[in-house]
Structure formats: structure tokens, C-alpha cells
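Predict the 3D structure for this chain.
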Amino acid sequence: MTVNPIAEDGTVGAPSQVIPTGQNAHAIHADPENRRVFATNLGSDQVVAFKFDRQTGQLTADQPASIAFPAKSGPRHFTFAPDGKFVYVVGELDGQVASFSYDAGTGAWKNIDRQSALPDGFKDKIWAADLDITPDGRFLYATERTSSTIKIFSVDTKTGKLTAGKSVPTETQPRDIKVDPSGSYLAAAGETSNSITLYSIGKDGDLTKLKSYPVGRKPNWIEIVSLP
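Done. Predicted structure below.
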């Protein structure tokens, strides 16, 4: 992992800090209060935890320094609930979405439950990829690449628990999904279909396909920017 300063003109400077981690450091996010930073280590089945100095950008190991996951689960991507009280992590290798309560004061994660992101009856190689949550925190979506599906979950915003819904067919090998800031749309990128599909999100969290767009070879990330 590295920490890089960002200049006033938006350019990224040379690393000010380089931090060794476990195997396959994969995704990194600051918590909603910007006081702690967490990063998944897919090959070491852990999330490493750091305190974050907002003035200097420096990271220091938190206590505990990591959150352990089941062996060979492969924690890949994660997202915080909009209110910051819960964290959701998708396991690439076990196809599970793990739910945690989050204590912003101490940085502690406490496992609530795990729910499968796999389609019913799935028996092939598990290859989950990404997840995202709606701005109101009521629905969460996770992708599985072998089946090329998006799993829909309802979220109990008081307890953080998930209820699994249906799996929706989508782009081939969906590497990334993003919910737009209004919570009205979801975009899914297919790494081997070379296109993205835009869906509308219904009141029940269901996805309705609107249109697909060619975007070039092997798209693997979507970022939605709100312009002034």
C-alpha cells in the first residue's frame, strides 16, 4: 500500500509512505469519519486496519491491526453503510457477503452474519467481484463473475442484516458495479463483454435493464462523477 499526496492542481505526487501488507492487497477505503483506513488482503483472508492522520496523510497500524476472515474466503471489495454503522465485504473465493457492525470510536468490526451472493443451485467455480449499496442503505448488490449475475439484497438499516433476493443476469464477467448518487440507477461493467449496462432501481430494489453501451476492451471499473 502507498500514501500519495495530491497537489492543489490534482496531480498525484510520489509516495510519502509505503506499507507492506499481507498477500494481494486489493481494496482500500477510509471510514466515513476519515479517521481510519482499511484494506482487504485477498490472499491472506484479512482486512488490515490503520489510524489516519488527516493533516499529514500518515497511516499507523491500529489495534487490532487486522480483522480475520474465514480461510480461503478471499475478502475482495467492501463498502460502508451510508450511516457508517455497518460494513459489508464480498469474498471472491467463497461468494459470501459478510456483514459487520462498525464502531467509529474504536474502529472495531463485529460480524453480524454472512449471506451468499451466488445464484440458487450454483455449483461452478466461485468468482465473486464487487458490491455497492444504495444511498438510503436499503439495498445492496453483489456480482459473481462465473455466472455473470448480480445478487440483490434487502438491508435492515437498524440491524445491518441482509436478506438475499434474486440473482439478475448481467454483463459477462461483471467486474464492477456502481449505484449513482441519487440511488435511482446501477451500472455494471462486463470485463469480457466489453460493455456496461445501465439499470433503473425500483422501489423494491429490483433492477430493470435500460440500455447497454460499448466501452472498449476489458472494462473493470466504473466511477460516477457529479458535475456542478
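The mean pLDDT is 97.
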